[in-house]
Structures are given as structure tokens and as C-alpha cells.
């Protein structure tokens, strides 16, 4: 690993970037948005093997191999109809290694190399020839206590780690973590899409179960909303949640009257709502969730703009989350206005906006976050969680929204072992960016060092009320 | 102030950028588009105090503070209903200083620091601890003759400064300037939105007053157009105007028949026009204004794409221009076509296009300006009037439109004391950009020095016919 | 010519970029997509004169002059109505030279300077004063055997050069090249727009001639499709084609039933189809062409998003290809889905996507090409065939799609003498980009040198099955 990776090439800037980066070396990792499995921390069992850790669950990895003609089955991803898939974990690992050159220049490569080098201490280059040696080294390490989830949590110096659970989740693993007396802080996040998005399969059943879990029924919108209140409280009490998360196809919000909302609710429950009405309901629910956030103090995250399961063939054969979620153009100015008109000036409300459409940074998101007190910009997300993605994010948001309307880094990952790598990248980019501002007379050195503390931990702690 | 601010960090490029920048050190400031108050130059009275100069009127400043929860009232911005607002100017100034860290990395910070340092000669850093000392220094300076508007005009080495007045303005201050015999060149710009945009409050009344001012009546479109002819002539004769300016929500233009235009005019006047018809009228009026420009030689500026007064609550409580104008996606290719088809090949027509949607630079604006003889690209505007904004502008327009289809810098500001700072930033970015082209073999040094003269003063003078 | 042009200014990066660039110095030119005239290679006659070579056919050149008020007629472009146009070639050349400063900072300038210096060995600067000397030097060179098309092909070290012919072309020049026994590889490309786009003038007549050429008739969609099969085979057999090319206004695709397709075909042939149906037909034909590609192995290229002949006045007076094709926003996510759902997972299908809308790179194109096995990204196209355009292309596609879902450079030109210059620019940008990745720890040096071979020739050979 190049110790000066991601820093500016010009020697003076590089030295300054290194100094800024080093000044935050002691900062703990805050991971307020992610998708690790709470069961890991509840049971603290050994991870099974390298392939199930690094290949099978990582959509960045298998989508790239698929794009070059490697069948998903050969990577151990089983069709839903029970058709055959490769089960030889070493063979899958070798296939992955044989195609490792595909990742040249990608963040996946940076994360994987970083994990191999720093988590497992392997100094060789990963590739076809070294694949089996890597497999053996990693497999052996995984059997040792130092590589159990809780030990890694400590080793990674994590201060808080948020997982994400659906509103129907019983939070058994979070309860188990809490009951275990372990001093790590693994908290949940309230993700109600399955009961707010009428396009979810079994939507009505979901809503009925959801209301039942909350001790009420789905008969009226008021009771349905009470169920949210109850479940949100449960997520806070049992799972330590401080935030909610909403993955919608668009940023549409609505501000309907109570009567119209009730009618719409009944219609979507009945299954007779058309596409526009289902979109209305999703939009209305963002506004309702914002209002509940104002009641209970939970931070609201909106992740819009992904066209989920773009390939019908892949979705039918393998199901969701197979690398076929594709970003789309997203409008924030018109779409968020109903919500903002309803409660956008409440100073206790906190909404964190994400985007997969970078054209919105300078045109819409920075101008909106730069004036509405409830809005903050989440970090560069998903495909943009990368050197260039983060650099563009800072370039296109800072001048209009400043640094203080942003929220620090999210790793947003289920790839637990990549968490240090991802935060390392984010910190290096921020250090490089701050050094560049100093080097071009746009920031004082004192301010840069102070901002580095903000960007690495203070802003995340404040934004997520951790 | 870092004397090499905004120059490239690499030492050779930096030295070249400095040399290019220095070569234009004697160039006067041309400010062909802006929003200073002509009354200042007419009366040449002292500015009242630091807070009313730097805080209360600067939407960049108060929007940022508002975004972090500082109420507008506490910044001295009074609600329209007469509700209370802070009136203690020193207290407001202190609030501003207490939040000055919010501006780290923003152009506002660069402009303010530059004004404090170069206009007032204060060498300390502005912040909570120094706020009152700054207030005293600035307040005292403002009482002296050297800080009167006309003296500053000379000190800033301004060659021409355009203000912007609505078509209903009587230009009394411009008349007073002209009559005073002062040798400064403060000219007006014809901004007819209040009589061309049917969404303006009191639109019909505006049109009737407007026609009356021009000695005609609003009875027919022909007479309404004659009123424009007369008012444009008045703006040229009394206010020295060389340009018109049009702030529209979109870039829509229309090329309707005279009969259809007459019918549309009557309908919008009647107040019965729907949203599409009101948009048609705005679009038709851009084409009509272009035709009048061809008659009278006035340069036409189009500033499209701002969603004005995005927050209903703020608009209702405080009125317009409170920092809630948010950029939107803007289409130029389809929207400008009717106008361009009507008169786009007239070589004497000059239309300067601006955008808040940077995605249009490379895709639409540079290709259009790179072929239509009437089109020129205005500089990076508003939120993009910044280092990164200008850099992207050059990167995304130069290769397709060249430098000569651009128009030099506009400061577009009502913050008079920031004018030197803004031009300083623009010149530095241009010098840095030219040096980068030379350093990467894309431009000869001779051409770079020649272009620096173009970009600092020649292009603005030509584009605005000054 | 600066030998380090387009390399990063920082000395270490610059040295590395130079080394990477030099490592591919021996790589031949592959030009798999372009618009040179096959007649040149068939007849191998001398080019007539500098003006007809460099000015009259180059829309980059005449659009820029036109944008600054130079009438097309004065550049030798004759109106279609037989109106006068300048015919004095030296006078046109002088006009071009008089406006050469307009090209400062543009790729046209780089290409022209490169051609003057390296193809003709002229060391002076081109401009008003040297115009006639250049004319004489070039005119004289063109009379010599070394400047004949085939000699230049060898001198330029071209391995394969694709031209583009319409589906109605008889390929006589390609036949003549083949029959001549010359060992250059000049191949054609199948471009069926005139028989797939109902907005083409004389569409029905085109389709009927097309079917007749293929020995069938236009009576049914099946027979029309058979005609495509036959003509594609003819293009492969006689013209050596390995690819098809499709220039559509949008990326719309459709996946209609056979019955619906037949009905649509009859309707568009009848001339009664409305705009939406004509768009449906274009979209359906992309899917049909993809299916034929699967049958016959031809690589499919889609070039969407140009608003052709934007100016009605210019189109009416001078016809098409006069510099008035303007890019528009293009959607790939929704528009390509019907085609991708139909056959997007066929591993033997190869579709190369281009764009004039750079906002699609990071948001749509890289995510799509990074997962669908049939998709590859063509290089930065047209207005983006430039230093900044290529740089943004790499920055916005690499992290998500990697390098191996891209296809190497296309020069896409009819300006034969600029081909070495254009490939030189592309290689320098790639070398600079790879060096930057190495210098910032995102790529190993070994990988960078290997990738340079991929980017200069391997990927193009693979992508186009050359």
C-alpha cells in the first residue's frame, strides 16, 4: 500500500495532506449508516470462509465479473428455482482472482487490497497465481479469536456502527447484543419501505403484520401511523436507533390533507391504486415520517433514485440485490417541496439527503441544504463512494453549502472487513481536498486541521445524534 | 491573503499563472451586469454601517446562517407583517461573526476576507473574538470621504458599472448621476420581467402603468410593443443602457404568429390564461425582445432556470429574495429553438446566455454558442460564481465554443464592496486556467497573455457594446 | 509541438506519463469507427488542395467561424439553391487563417497544428501572415506520391480503418479496394438509419429500394428483416464489416410482439404513423438489429442523442451536416431496458454505447456497462473527443465500469490527415490518466503499462472483433 495514496502529487500539497490525515489518525470510526448483519455481533461466531466473506455477498464484485461474461452461478449465487450453482468455495475464489484485473482503477480494488494487507497482513499481490495462498491465509485467520466480529470491532476502533432493519424486524439480534453486556455500540436503523411502498410484494400483508406487531390494526391511517410510532419507539428502545432510512425510487413528497391521506391509504391497501397513486402514497409517507421525526427526534435519511432490479431476467431468476440497481435522474427541487413546505423550517428536524445523480449536487442539493435548516447532505453514495466520486462531491457542494451542511462519511456496506478501508479512503480524500484548499489559498491551515476533525467524527456524531 | 491564491500548486504553473495575472493588473474593472443601487452614485452619501453593508442585504450570507438554524429575524431581516426583528446592528454583526466558520471553503469567505483586507486594510482574522474591533474599524472608515460610493468607484478602477432597473423605473437616480456631471460611468439595464411575466403580482396593472409611462395604452399588443420601444429608448437615453436582462423560470421561447400573439396578450392581460399560456407569453416575449434588440442594438441577456421563492413559508413571511431561489434543470436546445429559428442568424443580434444548470455547458450551451452567430455565453453565474464553478465553466465550454464565444466576467452583485474581490477571483481563475493550458501544451504562452487581455476587459467591452 | 503536451504538470507524474505513452509508441492505429471516404483508398488519387482537405468538409472548423459571423458561403459552402459561394480556394484558406485565433484552447487547434507539423513538417505557426506559405507547402506535398491515401495509411501505421456506409450503398469502392489486392484493411460499417428511421426523407422509397437490393420486397416485416440479413451479409462479405452503427435521436428501444411490429411496420411505410409511432419503430429496430447481431456476430454501435439540423434556416439553405447537430439529454436506463430485457444477457452479443450527454457517464452508462455482459462503452464522442472530454470520461466511468468495459479510442472522423493527431491525443490522455492513478496510489505501475496496451489497441481489436 502506497502510504501517500490518494494525496495530491505535488510534493508540498502531499506533505500537507499527509499531515492533515495524520492529525485524525486517532479518530474512531463512526459508521452511522450501513448494512452489516447484527447477528454477527450477537453471536460473535467465526466468519465461515473467504469466499462467503468477500465474493458472494459483494454486489460490486459479482456485477463486475458478470459484466464480463462470468455467470452468477459460477460465483456461487444460486438461482431461486433451485437450479445449480457452484458450491466449491475455492473454485469460486479462483474465478474471482482470475478476473481481478477487471477491478484495476476501481474502489473495490482499493478496499480489497487494503483489507488483505491490513486486516490479514498479506504482503503479496492478489491474483490468479496467489489466489489459493490467499485463501489459505484468510481461512486460517478466520478461525482465530482475533477475527471474530467483536474483536474486529475493537481492532477497527469503531465507536458506533448502525445496521439497517426493516420495520417488520423483531430486532432479536440487537436485543441479544444489548443483553450480552458487550460494550460495543451496534445500533439499528428504522427502514419502513416494506410498509410504506405499495410496490413491495405482499404490501397489504406487510402492513397488517406491522400493525399487529405494534398492537394495533391496519383499519385506519391513524392507527397505521400509530403503529409507526410504536415501532419507531421499539427500534429506539431495543435497537438504540437514532435514525430512519427511506429508499425510494424518486424524491417525491406529498402534503395531502388528512382526508385525502386516509382515502389514499385505503386505496393502496386495497391493491387498486394505480402507479401515480402508489407514488403519491410513498411521497406522503416521507412527509409523515418527517413529522414523526419531529415528534421523536429520529434523524431521517432519504436515499432516492435507484431503479431497482433493472433486469427482469436476473430478478426472476436470482431475485433482488444482484447488482442490477441502476441510478436515475432525480429531481429534488420540485419533489421535496411539499415536505419542505409542510415542515422544512422546523429547527429540530434533521433530514439527510443522498443522491445517485451527481448533477443534483451543485444545481439542487447544495442550494437546498445551504438554506433549509432541516437539510443536510449525506456523503457520496454507492457508485460514488470512491476517490473521484468524493472529490466531485466536495467540489460541487462546498462552495454553496459549506462543510457544515454535510454529515461526514457513511460506509453503507455489508462488507464488514472493508470498513476500515472505506473510512481510510474517505479520510484521505478529505485530507487531500483540505490540503488543496489550503495550497490554493482558499482555506487557512488552522481551519483545515479543525475541519479534519469535523469531517472524520464530529459531523457524523452531530448529524446522527450519536 | 495568500498572494498566489487560486493559482495551480505546481511551482512552474504557479509562476506562469502569476505572470499572466500580473500582466492584466492594470486592466480596469468592467461590470456590465450587476445590482448595485444607482442612488449610491447619485447621492454619494456615506454607507450607514457594517451590518447594513455586509450582512442584511447579502443573501449568500444570511442563507448560510439560516441553514444552520439562525433565524432571519436575528439577522435584522424583518417579517412583512411587522413582527419583531433584531435592530441592534452590533448584535447582528456579532451573530454573523460567531458563525463565520460556516463559510470555510466558500466564495463568500474569499470575498469578505478580501474586502476586509484590501478595502479596509484590516490584517487580523475575522471571527467571534475580533467582531467588534472589525465593526469599529469599518464603521469609522465608512464615515470618511474615501469610502463614499464615488470615491470607491475610482479606487476600484471601474470603467463602467451597470445596474439593473425594472421597466417601470423612472431612472431618477441615473438622471441625477448624469446631471451631476460626475465622470463615472454608471449605466442601467432594461429588465422588463414585471411586464413580460404574467406570473408577476399585479401584472395587468404593471402593463397599464408601463404603457402609460410610454405615452400609449395597453389596448393592443402592437401598442404594448411600442411601449417597450419607447421605454428601451428611455433606458438608453437617460440611463445609458446598452443591454436588457430577462430572468425567466425556463429558457422557453416561442415564435407565434401576430394574430396568435395578440390573442395570447389579451388573454394574459385578462388574467384568464392558464400556466401553459403564461409560459407561452413569456416565451413569445423573449423572441419579441430579441427582435427589438435587432432594431435598437441592445444586447439581450437571458438568465433562466431559477425556481424563485421555493419556500412558501419564507415568502409569505419575509417576501422575495431571501435566499430561497433554487436552480432547476434547464433545456436550451429545444427551448431556444423558436427564437433561433426566427432570428438566430442575424449577425447584428447579440444574446448572452447564462445558466444555473452546469450540465448544459458541454451538452447544450457550448455547442449552441459555438455555431449560432448571435449567441454568447455569459460567465459562471450565481452559485457558480466561485473558483470551482468558473473552472468547470472553462473546462466544459472552451473546447467546443472557444474563448471568443464567451463574454468575460460579470460580478452580478449588489455587494458593492465585494466587486474588486469578485473580479480578482475571476482573473485569478482565468490566469490559472490559461497557465494550465500552456503547461499542458494546449496553448502557446503568447496566446495566453493575449487571451488574458480578452478575458479581463476586451470581451466584456465587445459583448456589451460598452 | 510540446513533446510533453497533455501530460500532468507535476514533474514525477509527467515523467511517468511520458514513459507509459512511449511504451505504446509502436502500437498501430486501429480506427474501428469513422467517416473517411472509401473512394480515396480505392482510387488512391491525390487529394485536391489544402482547402478542400482541411476547411470545407470539417464541421468543427466552419461552425466555429460561422459562430463569429463568417458566412458559410465565404468558406466555400454552397447553398443548395445554387446561390453563390466563394470558389477561390486560397481566399477561403486565408479567411480560415485570419480566424485561427478562435480555435485557441480547442481540440481542432491541436489536431491542425499536429497535422501541419508532423504530416507536412511545417515548423512555423499557422496564422494570417503564414497562410499562403502553408497553402503552397501543403498543396505541393499533396501532389507527391507520399501523400496519396494509401501511402499515408502506411505512414500513419494503420492496422484497420472502418468507414461507414448506408444500407443502400453498393460498396463499389470497398469492392474495388478488395479487388485491387492492396494489403491495407479498409472495411465498411453497416449504417441502416435511412431504412430504419421513418423520419428520413423518402423513407418508403428507401425501404423498397433496400428490399429490392436484397432480392426481396417490402411487403412484410419478415421480408424487410430478411433484407437486413442479406445486406448485413453483403457488408461483411464485400466490405469486411464487423460492426453496425445506429444514429438515433434518442436511446429508445422497444420489444414489441411480432404482430405489433408487423402492424407498426405497415403503418410507418404508409406514411400515416405519428411521431410516437415513428419513435416506436426506431426503438423496435434497435432491438431487431441487436437480435440480428446475435445471429451474425456483428458488433452493434448506438450513437444517440443528437438533435440534427437544429437550425431550420441553415438546413433549408445548405442541407444537413452543417455544424448544427446539437446534443440533447439522453436517458439510457429506461430507454434501453426493452432491448436489454429482450436479449441483454446473451454473452455473444456486443453493443457499444456512445453519448453526447456526459451526465449519463457516472449515473447511467458506467452502472449499466458494469453489469450487463453485452454492453461496452464507446470512447468520448464528438464534442467530447478532446482532452477534457476524455478526462471526464475516464474519471466518471472507470470506478464503476472499470477499463475493461470500455473499447479504446475511435477517431470518428472524415478528416483523414487528423487521424494520427486524434489518436495521439487519446493516447496522451490515457497515459496521463494512468500515470495519475499510479501517482496517487490507485494503480500499480505494472498494471498501468499493461493497461496502456489495452487502451491503445487490444480493447479496440476485441470490442470490434477485428
Main features:
466 residues; alpha/beta; TIM Barrel; four-stranded parallel β-sheet; homotrimer; uronate isomerase, domain 2, chain A; three-stranded parallel β-sheet
Task: Describe the overall structure.
The structure is a homotrimer of 466-residue chains. The first copy, chain A, has 466 residues and is an alpha/beta fold. Chain A has 2 domains: 11-46 and 149-463, Metal-dependent hydrolases (TIM Barrel, Alpha-Beta Barrel), CATH 3.20.20; 47-147, uronate isomerase, domain 2, chain A, CATH 1.10.2020.10. Chain A is 50% helix and 8% strand. Chain A contains 20 helices and 11 strands. In chain A, the strands form 4 sheets. The first copy, chain A, has a 4-stranded parallel sheet, covered by helices on one side. A 3-stranded parallel sheet of chain A has the order 1-2-4. The longest helix of chain A has 22 residues, at 275-296. The radius of gyration of chain A is 22 Å and the shape is globular. Chains in contact: A-B, A-C, B-C. Chains A and C meet through α4, α15, β9 and α18 of A and α16, α17, α18 and α19 of C.
Amino acid at each position: 500500500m502506497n502510504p501517500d495514496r490518494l494525496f495530491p502529487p505535488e510534493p508540498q500539497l502531499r506533505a500537507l495532506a499527509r499531515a492533515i490525515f495524520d492529525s485524525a489518525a486517532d479518530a474512531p470510526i463512526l459508521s452511522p449508516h450501513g448494512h452489516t448483519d447484527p447477528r454477527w455481533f450477537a453471536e460473535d461466531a467465526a466468519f465461515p470462509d473467504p469466499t462467503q466473506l468477500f465474493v458472494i455477498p459483494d454486489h460490486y464484485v459479482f456485477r463486475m465479473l458478470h459484466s464480463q461474461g462470468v455467470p452468477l452461478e459460477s460465483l456461487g449465487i444460486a438461482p431461486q428455482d433451485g437450479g445449480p450453482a457452484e458450491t466449491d468455495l475455492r473454485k469460486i475464489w479462483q474465478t474471482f482472482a482470475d478476473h481481478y484485473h477487471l477491478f484495476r482503477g476501481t474502489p473495490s480494488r482499493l478496499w480489497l487490497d487494503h483489507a488483505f494487507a491490513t486486516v490479514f497482513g498479506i504482503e503479496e499481490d492478489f491474483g490468479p497465481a496467489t489466489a489459493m495462498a490467499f485463501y489459505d491465509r484468510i481461512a486460517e485467520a478466520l478461525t482465530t479469536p482475533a477475527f471474530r466480529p467483536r474483536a474486529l470491532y475493537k481492532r477497527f476502533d469503531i465507536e458506533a456502527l448502525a445496521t439497517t432493519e426493516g420495520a417488520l424486524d423483531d430486532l432479536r439480534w440487537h436485543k441479544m447484543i444489548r443483553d450480552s453486556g458487550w460494550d460495543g455500540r451496534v445500533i439499528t436503523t428504522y427502514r419502513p419501505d416494506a410498509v410504506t411502498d405499495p410496490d413491495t410484494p405482499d404490501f397489504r400483508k406487510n402492513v397488517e403484520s406491522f400493525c399487529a406487531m405494534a398492537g394495533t390494526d391496519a383499519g385506519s391511517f391513524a392507527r397505521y401511523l400509530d403503529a409507526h410510532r410504536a415501532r419507531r419507539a421499539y427500534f429506539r428502545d431495543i435497537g438504540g436507533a437514532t435514525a430512519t432510512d427511506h429508499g425510494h425510487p424518486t424524491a417525491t413528497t406529498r402534503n395531502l390533507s388528512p382526508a385525502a391521506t386516509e382515502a389514499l391509504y385505503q386505496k393502496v391497501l386495497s391493491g387498486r391504486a394505480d402507479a401515480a397513486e402508489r407514488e403519491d402514497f410513498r411521497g406522503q409517507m416521507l412527509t409523515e415520517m418527517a413529522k414523526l421525526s419531529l415528534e421523536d427526534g429520529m434523524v431521517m435519511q432519504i436515499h432516492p433514485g435507484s431503479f431497482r432490479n433493472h433486469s427482469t431476467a436476473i430478478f426472476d431468476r436470482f431475485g433482488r440485490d444482484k447488482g442490477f440497481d441502476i441510478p436515475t435522474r432525480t429531481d429534488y427541487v420540485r419533489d421535496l417541496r411539499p415536505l419542505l413546505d409542510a415542515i422544512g423550517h422546523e429547527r429540530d428536524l434533521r433530514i439527510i439527503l443522498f443522491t445517485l445523480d451527481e448533477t443534483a449536487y451543485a444545481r439542487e442539493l447544495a442550494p437546498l441544504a445551504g438554506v433549509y435548516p432541516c437539510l443536510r447532505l449525506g456523503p457520496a453514495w454507492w457508485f460514488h463512494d470512491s476517490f473521484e466520486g468524493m472529490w466531485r462531491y466536495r467540489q460541487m457542494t462546498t462552495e454553496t453549502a459549506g462543510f457544515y451542511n454535510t454529515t461526514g462519511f457513511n460506509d453503507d456496506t455489508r462488507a464488514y472487513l472493508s470498513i476500515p478501508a472505506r473510512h481510510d479512503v474517505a479520510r484521505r480524500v478529505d485530507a487531500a481536498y483540505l490540503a488543496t484548499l489550503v495550497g490554493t489559498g482558499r482555506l487557512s491551515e488552522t481551519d483545515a486541521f479543525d475541519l479534519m476533525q469535523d469531517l472524520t467524527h464530529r459531523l457524523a456524531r452531530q448529524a446522527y445524534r450519536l
